[in-house]
Amino acid sequence: MSGIVRDVPRDPRLYNEDLAPTPPERRTWSTYNYIALWFSMSMEVTTYMLASSLIAGGMNWKQAVGTILLGNLIVLLPMILNAHAGAKYGIPFPVFVRASFGTRGANIPAILRALVACGWFGIQSWLGGQAIFAMLNVLWPQTANQPGVLWACFLGFWLLNMVIVWRGVESIRFLQSFSAPFMLIMSLTLLFWMLHKAGGFGPMLSTSSQFHSTGAFLKFFFPSLTAMVGYWATLSLNIPDFTRYAKNQDAQIVGQAFGLPVAMTLYSFIGIACTSASVTIFGEPIWSPITLLGRFHQPFVAFHALIALLVATLNVNIGANVVSPSNDFANLAPRYISFRTGGLITGFLGFAMMPWKLMSTFGSYIFGWLIGYSGLLGPVAGIMIADYFMLRRTRLDTDSLYRPDGVYKYSSGINFRAIVALIVGVFVALVGLAVPSVRFLYDYAWFVGFFIAGAVYLALMKVAAPVVLAEPVE
Prior knowledge:
single chain, Hydantoin permease, globular
């Protein structure tokens, strides 16, 4: 059976129980689990706000849906490619990336990914706290405009996340399997409520495009497309953290190929339709669902809708923003940092990154946060895929991934060719921030970084010593 590995020497510098290859008896995730994973992670506040920001930026609903669908079909490719090693060898992302960056050098991309996840954790925790605060305002209006209550809600939501992390990955699978159908029902309820208030789909989707020329549209479209890809650029790296539990390759490929584009497009349409309807109802596009719900004066509807938002935020925060950095921090010092300890580190760093500033406007969200970090992670994805598929032809020596003297030791555990490729890719992707004449490079940050870093890595590795291929795993 593909994916069975030999006994791994337990070097405490590179190994602990959380980083060890997943044994066959624990590979229980089916196609449904991956579909549920994507539905639960897609149906949350930041996806809604991702879609609604396109309406607020001037697109009509058809342009917004098309942009989101295209972006998610693009990011699906690196998602499935990087997922392959997880399903085949049962290894998480920080172990998989040792093949290309070295057993020590892997800490660099792992920490880049972890820091971005910490930022997302902070954003989701802040939004979850806002949802709790809004529910309290519905029940006890006197709590409105009391910052202390808002901060108490934020900290309470943070603690809830930590409790789930402490219970382990199987509690995550249970939570997502249970809540995915619940979130679909609640989201459709919100959609039909807005449909009723707007007076039908005609008025609801009547907001026209604010772009009066093809050039003006494309100037907004291409950075927005990069942001759509950047939205899941994080998970496209650490998807092995989930596919290591797959029953087989078909389970993760079919589950993801259906779950990601369908879930994102469906829930994005809800955000697009509701934001478009807000123009009809209130005379302005309201991109935050929490703010939108606050405009209605039906406590029963608002309260239940906010509960749905809260459950969705909890799902994606655990699934996308805690699992990966917990493993990444554990990879720094496996002897001292467990998955649980890594989760606690994620929580504190997420708070320190001041998420209330990252989400201050739709412009800072799209053109600052999403595009900016995509320029950091796109190069990592390019290097990983080039190494695993083009150089190693999907063959890894799993034992050597956990040994400092194995085939992935390179120079004292660091593959400097990968580091050089990463630096070049990040520099070219982000140079447009400082040099206005090449701003277009920043607008395409993920794509530029992905292809530049991948090409540089292949060129440098071709002039190096021949890559040692592992024996085929049977």
